[in-house]
Amino acid sequence: MGKGDKKTKRGKINRGTFGTRRPRIKKKPSVETKINIDKKNIVTQ
User: Fold this and answer.
1) How many structural domains are present in the chain?
2) pTM of this prediction?
3) Which of 5, 6, 25, 38 is the most buried (most CB within 10 A)?
């Protein structure tokens, strides 16, 4: 269990892949984008 192991977190980091052991971190929308989206909805209505 180490860098060469496909199923471990360390192995995923070494290979540069993602999976259940090392899922991708989803970016949260920033406050600025939320404000811009709200303004667009108001203008289009």
Assistant:
1) 1
2) 0.50
3) 5
